[in-house]
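Hi all, long-time lurker, first post. I run a small reading group and we've been trying to get comfortable going from sequence to structure in the token notation. Rather than ask abstract questions, I figured I'd post a concrete chain and ask someone more experienced to write out its structure so we can walk through it together at our next meeting. Sequence below, copied exactly:
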Amino acid sequence: MQPTAMDTAMDSTVDSTVDNEEIARFAAMADDWWDPSGKFRPLHQLNPARLTFIRDHLAAHFGRDATGPEPLVGLKILDIGCGGGLLTEPLCRLGAAVTGIDAGAEAIAVARAHADQMGLEIEYHHRPPETLSEESGGYDVVLNMEVVEHVAGLPAFLAASAGLVRPGGAMVLSTLNRTLKSLALAKIGAEYILRWVPVGTHDWRKFRRPSELVRHLRPAGVELRALKGIDYIPTDGTWVLSDNLDVNYLMFAEKAETAGS
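-- Answer (accepted) --
Happy to help. Here is the structure in token form:
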């Protein structure tokens, strides 16, 4: 899993969705990716709920047994904005052939090193989704987990992501809703009061309402099929799936088998 020629393909395209300020912010925290008590602690805590949602919906969509040892075997998954690989590794262990891409070189270096240490075969590349046009329709599943609130040009980013899903495939997204409650809890509370994440991690103005994601995905033939919230349980520091969409939420969407269907 050494760097390849494609990793130099961070082409300076006019329509780049990379927000350089966001990339620099995460680059400064790269050494903390696999520290469950470090700056990415919230993602470590979110992972069980995120994985349950992904596994169960993909198993239902592709006719698999979600309780089996490798329910995702045979599925080709692209994790966009994979960071240090917190989701790519468990998805690989569930049987999927996983590729992770990220616009941050430091995160990809961490992800490669950790996967090698764990003996996992995962493809990692330093590039944004708009540089993968040659792989159009090449994935059964595309993930956009905690990334859409950090990109430049949401419509272009989602269009590029949707173009990588094969007909009949699926997309899973998770992000923060733009509500007064999320401003109070996910921005002011998480950054300034509880210090869960470094100050400046999020820009509340870039939080995304579910309707905004749906509106940008629909032209690419990707339709919403399931929407769930995630609630924090302070008594034991865990996150659980819920019907409350006010702050964090997950979205499962399907791509039409044929155009116009």
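A couple of things your group might point at:
The two ends are 39 Å apart (CA to CA).
The longest helix spans residues 41-62.
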